[in-house]
């Protein structure tokens, strides 16, 4: 038996490693580098009803142990994703998690209804936490009652399980998590980026054209781990953890904190082979720790007993 | 095909003020094809600095499996790179991007190559290949000042090479456009790489000839996946058309994208 295969609502995964939304496009570029069949799942770039150009450039800035981005949800729009990207991805035996975004509730509902009908989309990830769009995005992710209502509405129309992506830019992450669980979320993904800023020494102005951007990479790992640790003790749905994961060791830490699977974002830019590299290293690490199956590690830091069936394939 | 490889530093030397020439050896060179392509370099292992740095391929030596990059020390990444010594290894991802087209129908024709500052390096391999394509090449290269100029002799061995410096310490005082305005004769094709104001000036002046411009943009992935490096397409009314500098470019036919 493979000690990495897991089951999540809507999905059988070969392993718990997947690229995070926005850091992998629709997989085409990375498919030229390695066989995407190795991945546990793929979280595709945010999809909105209409095509979006996103924010002006520069859209990225480096920070110590991280980066800021203000892409602004650039994407080719629902129709193109349905007609071109998802059918292309169907050649791989990998479940797709579609990242759904919008400016108004109806946008989310429309995208969710349609994108969930694609045969290879096994789950939705509601992006209620993008810091880089003027309307929608952030409000949905910081007000518990709005987040709950949105989750409910999307659940009604979606034909696949719905995960909600939480923003770290809130005072009380547990409250947010419980609100969307109440709204019917089948799982949580966390965390999205932290709002940040950098100044250009020559011009004395923000480096990003959008002024602020989302901080990702190793710099945010401790924040992600803390939030997953807190939330996982208060909810009964699985958590896909993300935020600065670069190595198999990082993955273990996220599991200890309470994650049932993980996503790798910025590390794909640093090393495009980051995901397959981590997948290859994990079995040896599990052996060192002395467990047969990675799901035995979920919540180990706070003594969670592995009684939930969704962990094991 | 794009590869990632720990390449070995064959040589590293400072060739002008804050300008370094580094020769790297490795199998990845066999994939290098078009002049104007670039590599994405991890200046240091680990997370400091975290992201890769895009640097143009300046010269390709297939026989020895080596290529040259020329870079200016700007910030953390390029400064770290400058500390590498012969025998050290550098993590290189590449070759990336499309590069400058070399077209058979240009054989025997006249090309104008315009470079500004750190936009000069990719023109060197280009110039060599154009000369192989039996073309006449004329170079106009702009620098801040004489001490930051480089490769003038190398370019001069391939065709006329004119320099413009902001302070007039080498060649003509002013910008590359000051030289071009005074130049005689017609050109059949223009290739340029440099700062945006320079490219804009060239776009205005040479709207009637075939021209290719190489752009810079801040990058995340360097392979087309993150949408960090996009630029809008000229004349697109929908406002949603774009090109990615890293994978659709960095070279674009004049008029294709908004500068
Ligand atoms: C396609 C392409 C080809 C290039 N070719 C060369 C070359 O041959 N020689 C050379 O000296 N330089 C070249 N550059 C510019 C070079 O990438 C930057 O000077 C370098 O990344 C600066 O890194 P740093 O760590 O020294 O500076 P920092 O300012 O510390 O870098 C911080 C961040 O900003 C980014 N950044 C800073 N300046 C630029 C820039 N001008 N373009 C893109 N990103 C930038 C860095 O990549 C990094 O992510 C090229 C850029 C591009 C896009
Ligand atoms: C360039 C970039 C684009 C992103 N785009 C999206 C997106 O479209 N939708 C989304 O939910 N998250 C997006 N994210 C957030 C990531 O999915 C992830 O939550 C975050 O980067 C933290 O993980 P990391 O530190 O491993 O990158 C993006 C992140 C980056 C760096
Ligand atoms: S740098 Fe990622 S798309 Fe160009």
Bound molecules: flavin-adenine dinucleotide, flavin mononucleotide, FE2/S2 (inorganic) cluster
Q: Please tell me what the overall shape of chain B is.
A: globular
Number of strands of chain B: 16
Q: Indicate the proportion of strand residues of chain A.
A: 15-25%
Tell me what the CATH architecture of the largest domain in chain B is. 3-Layer(aba) Sandwich
Shape of chain A: globular
The CATH topology name of chain A reads TIM Barrel
**Mean of pLDDT of chain A:** 94
Radius of gyration of chain B: 18 Å
The biggest beta sheet of chain A, please? 8 strands, parallel
| Number of separate helices of chain B | 5
Largest interface: A-B, 39 and 32 residues
Q: Provide the structure class of chain B.
A: alpha/beta
What is the top-level CATH class of the largest domain in chain B? Answer: Alpha Beta
Overall helicity of chain B: 10-25%
Cofactor (chain B): [2Fe-2S] cluster; FAD
Keywords (chain B): 2Fe-2S, Electron transport, FAD, Flavoprotein, Iron, Iron-sulfur, Metal-binding, Pyrimidine biosynthesis, Transport
Binding site for FAD (chain B): 53-56, 70-72, 77-78
Binding site for [2Fe-2S] cluster (chain B): 221, 226, 229, 246
Task: Describe the structure in your own words.
The complex is a heterodimer of chains A (313) and B (259). By secondary structure, chain A is an alpha/beta fold. Chain A has ten helices and 14 strands. Chain A has helices at 28-31, 78-89, 105-115, 138-142, 144-157, 173-182, 221-232, 248-257, 267-270, 274-289; strands spanning 6-8, 11-13, 17-19, 42-43, 60-63, 66-69, 96-100, 121-127, 162-165, 187-190, 194-197, 212-216, 239-241, 261-264. The longest helix of chain A has 16 residues, at 274-289. The radius of gyration of chain A is 18 Å and the shape is globular. Chain A starts with 5 loop residues before the first strand and ends in a 24-residue tail after the last helix. Chain B has 259 residues and is an alpha/beta fold. Chain B has two domains: 3-96, Translation factors (Elongation Factor Tu (Ef-tu), domain 3, Beta Barrel); 104-214, Rossmann fold. Helix content of chain B is 15%, strand content 35%. In chain B, a hairpin with a 2-residue loop joins strand 1 (3-16) and strand 2. The longest helix of chain B is centred in the middle third of the chain and has 12 residues, at 121-132. The mean pLDDT of chain B is 96. Chains A and B meet through helix 1, strand 5, strand 6 and helix 9 of A and strand 14 of B. Flavin-adenine dinucleotide (FAD) is lined by residues 38, 49, 51, 53-56, 69-72, 74-78, 118, 121, 216-219, 250 of chain B. Chain B: FAD binds at residues 53-56, 70-72, 77-78. Chain B: One of its GO terms (molecular function) is 2 iron, 2 sulfur cluster binding.
